[in-house]
């Protein structure tokens, strides 16, 4: 019985992780960058982002 409870819990955690990956795909990129010690990088120009937006987005 205990084995079934542990197995159901682990399967539920896998399901939550898969749903989170589908709903918030960019969050994983930010977490990997933070873990590697790099700051956020703009997707269009490749520069580091200081603040909320990149300078290339402000120009357009």
Keyword list:
about 60 residues; single chain; transmembrane helix; membrane; transmembrane; Short-chain dehydrogenase
Structural features, described:
This protein has helices spanning 2-23, 25-36, 55-59. The chain is an all-alpha fold and 60 residues long. The radius of gyration is 18 Å and the shape is elongated. The model has no long low-confidence stretch (mean pLDDT 82).
Order of helices and strands: HHH
Radius of gyration: 18 Å
Number of strands: 0
The domain tally reads 1
Describe the largest sheet.
none
- Binned, the helix content reads 55-70%
- Poorly predicted tracts of residues: none
Net shape: elongated
Mean pLDDT: 82
Bin the strand percentage. Answer: under 5%
- What is the SS-derived class? mainly alpha
> For the terminal residues, how far apart are their CA atoms?
61 Å
User: Tally the helices: what do you get?
Assistant: 3
Fold topology:
Elements: H1 2-23, H2 25-36, H3 55-59
Task: Summarize it.
The chain is built from 3 helices and no strands. With 60 residues, the protein is an all-alpha fold. It starts with a helix and ends with a helix.
């Amino acid at each position: 019985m205990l084995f079934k409870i542990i197995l159901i819990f682990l399967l539920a955690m896998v399901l939550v992780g898969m749903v989170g990956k589908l709903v918030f795909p960019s969050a994983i990129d930010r977490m990997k960058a933070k873990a590697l010690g790099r700051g956020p990088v703009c997707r269009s120009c490749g520069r580091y982002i200081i603040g909320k937006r990149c300078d290339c987005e402000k120009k357009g």
